[in-house]
Structure formats: C-alpha cells, structure tokens
Amino acid sequence: MEKRVVFRSGWLPYVLVAPQLAVTIIFFFWPAAQAIYYSFLLQDAFGTQTQFVWFRNFIDLWNDTNYHESFKVTAVFSILVTFIGLSVALLLATAADRVVRGAMVYKTLLIWPYAVASAVAGVLWAFLFAPSVGIVSYLLRGMGIDFNWVLRGDQAMILVVIATVWKQISYNFLFFLAGLQSIPRSVMEAAAIDGASPTRRFWNIVFPLLSPTTFFLLVVNIVHAFFDTFGVIDATTQGGPAGATQILVYKVYYDGVKAADLGGSSAQSVILMVIVIALTVVQFKYIERKVQY
Q1: Burial tier of 89 (Cβ tally within 10 Å: 0-12, 13-18, 19+)
Q2: In the chain, where are the structural domains located?
Q3: Rounded to whole angstroms, what are the CA distances from 21 to 18, 28, 276?
Q4: What count of Cα atoms within 13 Å lies in the side-chain half-sphere of residue 253?
Q5: Cβ–Cβ < 8 Å for 110, 173
Q6: Which among 178, 176, 175, 171 has a CA at the least distance from the CA of 121?
Q7: CA 214 from chain center: how many Å?
Q8: Whole-prediction pTM value?
Q9: β partners of residue 43
Q10: What is the spatial distance between Cα 38 and Cα 270, in angstroms, rounded to a whole number?
Q11: 42 close to 57: Cβ distance less than 8 angstroms
Q12: Of 80, 154, 250, 271, which residue has the fewest beta carbons closer than 10 angstroms?
C-alpha cells in the first residue's frame, strides 16, 4: 500500500520544492529562453547594435555548407562512438559476468574511467597519440604506420572516437553487467542441457533479453556523443584539422565565442535543443518503461 505524507501547513510543500524550481528556472529555462531570443537577432562585430531579423540566422544555417559538413561529422562521430562503445562494453560485461576469482578487482578497474573528466581523458589520449613523443605513435611507426592526427583528419577522428569510447565505456559496462546478472540462471542451464552451444545461447537467449538495456544505452550514447563530448574535442583537436572533428556542439562554441556570431550560435543552440528534446521524448515514451535494471 502506498504511503503518502500529509503536511499540516498548506504552504510548506511549496517552500520545500522552491529551491529546486529556482535552480531549474535559473540554470535551464532562463538560458534556453535567452538562446531562443538571441537566435532572432543579428549583432554587429563589436556587439554594440542588434537588429531583429526573424528567421534569417536559421536560413543562413540552412544554406551554410560548413554547417552541413558539421552535421555529417557529428553523425559519423556519433555512430562510431555508439557502435564501438556498446560492442566493447558488452564484450567486457560478458567476460566479467563469468569471472569467478578477482571479479571485484576486474569490475573496479573497468569502472575507473567514468571518474575521469572528459577534458582529462582527451589530454591523456592526445599524449599517447602525440605524433612526436606519444608511445602509441612510436609503436605504430615501428609497424610502418605514420599516425599524425594533427595533420590528418581521418586520424584525428580516430583519436577523438577512442578517447570518447574509453570515457563512456564504464557507464555502458555497468548497465550491461546489471542486465546480464538479472537473467535467470535456470534459463541458461535449461538451454545448456538441451545442447545449445555458448554462442547460440548468447544470440538466442542473452542478447534478446538484453535488448531493452541495449536500446536504452543506444539513445544515451547518441545523446552523449552529440552533447557531452565538448571536453574531449576541445582538449585534443579543437575541431581540426580543417574541421574534420568539428561536431555540432563544438561549432556552437566556436561560432559564438571565437567568431563572435552570437545570433548564428544561438540558432545552432536552438536546433540542438530541439534534437535533444526529441531524443528525450523517444526515450521516456518508448524505452524507459522497458528497461530492466
């Protein structure tokens, strides 16, 4: 039976939720309203005069080939991060689920990367792959591979994908491991008695039962690749070389802060806001209720 708290004072509940409402309004709704307002304005180079231009900033983005290219870069980056991140995390979680001795140490080591900030993760991998002094670049040169992400766009993309996957892999690992441990052992034992091989048991039993968790992580990883990877990009390639790793969220920062195009940057923020709202609606409406924790 559900228990409900009854307040004797009618105003006390409103006082208790007031701090949370104030934080939400000040740090979420007010900046969002400001972004929408500035997306309809055009400022001069010094920010002294503004002009209301309706949807001109959005039309300029629609005709901007650099913005289209940034969309493509973001799509490639998100697909690579999501696919590789989920695959590696599922492999590690499956291995961890079978570990008997030293399981706690194994799991603890896999969770550590989640405690590292995105910028720190980017700097770490940038040092490892540094063209002149990086240990990984040195080993690759020994194998005849000239890895120079400072000059080559495809190698810069590989670097930021590796750093982002490494940073996010702990989160995916925990959810996959929880999903694996929630599968009844009796089901697996019955399949083994019927003669099903480990590979067939995984694809016919384990993977279908993990599908709600996989679908949930799919949405979370796409959102993460779209919006939470600014630190990795800024600490490593800063969108270069020649825009090869300039994802949408970094372009918002570059156009607004470095290029001083406040109206265009605000319009890009509004577009990103619409994308994340759409993804969140899909997640809560179709996925959240099906996830097995």
Answers
A1: buried
A2: 66-290
A3: 5, 10, 21
A4: 13
A5: yes
A6: 171
A7: 15
A8: 0.82
A9: 50
A10: 10
A11: yes
A12: 154
Would you give the DSSP letter of residue 285?
I
Contact status, residue 50 vs residue 41, Cβ threshold 8 Å = yes
- pLDDT (tens, 9 = 90+) of the chain, 293 residues, equals 556 777 777 788 888 889 999 999 998 889 889 889 988 888 776 767 888 888 888 998 888 888 889 889 999 999 999 999 999 999 988 888 876 666 777 777 777 777 788 888 889 999 999 988 889 989 998 898 888 888 888 999 999 999 999 988 888 988 898 888 888 888 888 888 888 788 888 888 888 888 888 888 888 888 888 888 888 999 888 887 888 898 988 988 988 888 888 888 889 999 988 888 887 787 777 665 655 54
Indicate the residue type of 178.
Answer: A
Burial of 132 (0-12, 13-18, 19+ CB in 10 A): exposed
**Which residues, listed in sequence order, are joined to residue 195 by a DSSP beta bridge?**
none
| Dist CA 238 CA 230 (whole Å) | 9
Q: How many CA atoms lie within 13 A of 177 on its CB side?
A: 22
pLDDT tens for each residue of 119-155:
888 899 999 999 888 899 899 988 988 888 888 889 9
Would you call the peptide bond into 241 cis, given omega within 30 degrees of 0 as the criterion?
Answer: yes
Specify the residue for token string 């940038």: 126
Residues 6+ apart with CB under 8 A from 28: none
Span between the terminal Cα atoms of the chain, in Å: 23
CB-count exposure of residue 193 (10 Å: 0-12, 13-18, 19+): exposed
Beta bridge partners of 51: 42
